[in-house]
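Session log. Operator J.P. requested a structure for one protein chain; no other inputs attached. Running the standard single-chain path with token output.
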Amino acid sequence: MKEITINDFSQYLFWDVDISDFDFEKHKSFFIQRVLEYGRMKDWELLKKFYGMEAIKNAALNARSLDAVTLSYLSAIFKIDKTQFRCYKNRQLYPTLWNS
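Structure written below.
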């Protein structure tokens, strides 16, 4: 089986990243969050193969921000209440004018 590299993911996800020296372990949380919020289904499948569901769950639970759709999706697939996610708690602490 072919080794998964950053080039296998949608290139638009990392337009602002120097992929020549990207470290998957050092930047794991950033990488997972970027794929979760902006990736396509192909990227999601690659992410699951590369990191596994437990690492994705841990990164998602500790992410400072996730959009509402991504949060709902992750809450459903991991069967974890939204209130357990760090991003949900942060959103409650710092509501924006148009969401309050």
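Operator note: Residues 67 and 75 are 12 Å apart (CA to CA).
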